[in-house]
């Protein structure tokens, strides 16, 4: 058995509404921007415009929550009201300065080129809607993290993201129907959800629509049973046809922003799916 220590605490950090400062605008910074926007944070980007990676430019031109300052990092005043700092610059002296300012102010910081200056590391990531997977080698081999990520991607169950969305909806409706935190009701809800998730296939769960959810709750939850997909109205000939993934949730539905989003998404795929 491997020893318990020597790893990291892997968490899903809730950044919605928080202020994240990103210093640098190159290749690595563009990945940071994408990761932080995925978490609905507000990004402040400080970097001169002459060093912008095409993907960083794309994010700046797109309909995203980014405040941009076209200049070098200016010192401690840039850290006011900041919850998290990510630096990805090609200047190791400045990197160390930013790190020590953050440590003084107790702001969590990641410095892309100096592992000792990181309070946390990034990892290789997989995203399918609400499903996020991170592979960390704890600083030992980022390239192997990338290779392992691609192997895991090839073996993910199909429609996992859609299944998670639909089961999320079922759980919300179940909690509305049988409210209360903890206690007997909580235990019964959890037992029933475990039974549903383990008796239906991933693809069947992905097909749950609002009508099927209602029937599953009426004929399943209310009667302490788990009906089959057919029993709640899934047609045996029903084939899976999910709506295509939207590049970034919350994008205003204007043609301009759609085109910008699509261009950014394509650029992102070209830049990162290595
Ligand atoms: C500690 C960490 C800090 C942090 O960045 O948070 C860190 C540090 C450093 N990376 C360096 C190099 C490379 N990094 C990559 C790629 C990625 N690096 C990522 C994370 C991390 N990199 C954190 C630990 C991750 C872990 O624990 O596994 C990934 C996973 C996530 C991301 O950055 O978003 C992303 C892959 C994403 C994907 O593809 O899915 C490649 C490959 C490539 O570019 O193709 C190379 C060249 C090959 C190689 O070295 O492996 C160097 C310079 C080393 C030198 O000078 O020799 C340092 C500094 C040092 O190690 O001293
Ligand atoms: N952690 C990781 O995954 C990896 C880390 N790195 C390291 O990360 C750093 C960044 O890598 P890249 O994005 O490829 O570099 P890059 O050279 O493409 O970009 C550097 C960016 O930092 C900006 N910059 C430099 N000094 C600045 C300052 N004082 N204030 C604001 N902006 C400043 C530049 O204008 C440019 O936009 C490098 O040190 C590199 O060695 C490199 C590869 C992977």
From TrEMBL:
InterPro entries: Met8-like, Met8_C, NAD(P)-bd_dom_sf, Sirohaem_synthase_central, Sirohaem_synthase_N. Residues 128-154 form the Siroheme synthase central domain. Residues 157-227 form the Siroheme biosynthesis protein Met8 C-terminal domain. Pathway: Porphyrin-containing compound metabolism; siroheme biosynthesis; sirohydrochlorin from precorrin-2: step 1/1. The chain crosses the membrane at residues 246-271. Pfam families: NAD_binding_7, Sirohm_synth_C, Sirohm_synth_M. The keyword Transmembrane applies. This is precorrin-2 dehydrogenase. It comes from Rhizopogon vesiculosus.
């Amino acid at each position: 058995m491997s020893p318990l220590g020597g790893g990291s605490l892997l968490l899903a950090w809730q950044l919605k509404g928080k202020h994240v400062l990103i210093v640098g605008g190159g290749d690595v910074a563009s990945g940071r921007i994408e990761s932080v926007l995925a978490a609905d944070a507000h990004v402040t980007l400080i970097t001169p415009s002459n060093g912008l990676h095409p993907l960083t430019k794309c994010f700046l031109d797109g309909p995203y929550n980014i405040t941009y300052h076209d200049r070098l990092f200016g010192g401690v005043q840039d850290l006011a009201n900041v919850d998290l700092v990510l630096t990805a610059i090609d200047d190791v002296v400045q990197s160390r300065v930013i790190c020590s300012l953050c440590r003084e102010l107790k702001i969590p910081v990641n410095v892309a080129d100096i592992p000792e200056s990181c309070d946390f590391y990034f990892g290789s990531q997989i995203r399918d809607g609400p499903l996020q997977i991170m592979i960390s080698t704890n600083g030992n081999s980022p390239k192997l993290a990338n290779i392992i990520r691609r192997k895991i991607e090839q073996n993910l169950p199909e429609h996992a993201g859609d299944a998670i969305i639909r089961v999320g909806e079922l759980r919300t409706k179940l909690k509305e129907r049988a409210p209360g935190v903890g206690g007997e009701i909580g235990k019964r809800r959890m037992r029933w959800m475990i039974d549903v998730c383990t008796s239906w296939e991933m693809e069947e769960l992905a097909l749950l629509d609002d009508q099927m959810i209602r029937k599953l709750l009426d004929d399943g939850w209310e009667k302490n049973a788990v009906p089959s997909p057919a029993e709640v109205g899934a047609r045996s000939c029903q084939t899976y046809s999910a709506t295509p993934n939207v590049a970034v949730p919350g994008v205003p539905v204007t043609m301009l922003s759609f085109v910008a989003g699509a261009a950014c998404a394509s650029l992102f795929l070209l830049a990162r799916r290595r």
